[in-house]
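Audit log entry. Action: structure prediction of a protein-small molecule complex. Ligand: zinc ion. The ligand was supplied as SMILES and no pocket hint was given, so placement is left entirely to the predictor. Protonation state taken as written. Sequence taken verbatim from the request; no trimming, no tag removal. Recorded inputs:
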Amino acid sequence: MPLPADLPVVDHHCHLSPSGDGVRAAERFAREGGTDLFLTTHNWNHAPLRAVEDYRRQFEEMEALAGRIRTGTPVRVHLVVAPYPVDLVETAEALGLPAAVAVQEGALELAGRWVRDRRAVAIGEVGRPHFPVAPDRAAAAETVFRRALAVARESDCPAVVHSEDLDARGYRGVADLARAVGQPAGKVVKHYAREVVPTAGRAGIVPSFLARRDLVETVLDDPAPWFLETDFLDDPARPGAVMDLATVPRRASALVRDHPDLVDRLRTPFVESVRRVYGFDPTDGKERSG
Ligand SMILES: [Zn+2]
C-alpha cells in the first residue's frame, strides 16, 4: 500500500548546506514520498560568525538553496531562521561576550523581520547550549533566549527551541520563559525531543520528536500537536552523525505497510499540528515563505 496521495509527509526540522548534499538530499526525500521540509539555518562554515551581516548572508544562502530545491524538486520548503544558540559561545571566544550577545540580538531582529516579510515561517533554532558552559555564557544565553521568544511574539510566529533534553520540569521552565514575554506555549516547539514526556507534563510546549522507530511507535497515539524530524545536518565532515533526510518518509511508508489501519494517525504530525502551530494547511500545496 503506497502513501495516500493526499497525505503530506513533513520533516519538521532539518539542515541543508550549499557545500553538502543540498538539493540531492531533497531529491532523496521526495523519492521516498516526502513533501515538506522545515529548513532551518545553521552555520555550515564552522567559522565563528562575527556580525549581523554574517547572519544576513547565511539566511540569504539558505533562501537561495530553498529556491533551488523548489525549482528542482516537488518538495515544499518552509524556512526557519535564527542565530544558532551555540554560535554565541564561539562568537564570544572571538569577540568577547558583550559583543557576541549584541550580534545574536541583532541577528534575532533580522530573523523577526524575515518572518514579518514572509521570507520565513518561524524563529529557530533559539535557546541554549545543550552542554554545560561557563556561568557567564549560560547567563548570556538565557538573556538571548528570552529576547528570541519576545521576537517570536512580536512577529506572531512559532519559536523552535534548541536545548538540553527536557523533563516535565524543563518543559515548565521553558513555558514560563515564554509566558513572561507573552509568547503562547503552543507556539514554542522543543526540537530534537527524544524522550517521551506525557502530554500533561509538557506545559503546552510542542515536541518535535526525532524520527526513531521506537519513538514514532510510542507517540503515534498522542493528540496534536507534535512533529517528527531528522535534524539532518548535511555535513560532509560528519556523515551519519544524524538521521538521513529520507527517514521520515521511510517511517511513514513502513507504517502504512505494516499497519494500514493506523495511516490516519500520520495526519496528526503532518497536517493537524502544522495547522495548529504554524497556522497553514500543508494539504493546500502552497508555500508560506521565500
Ligand atoms: Zn537542528
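Audit: result stored. The radius of gyration is 18 Å. Strands lie at 10-14, 36-40, 76-81, 122-127, 159-162, 188-193, 206-210, 227-229.
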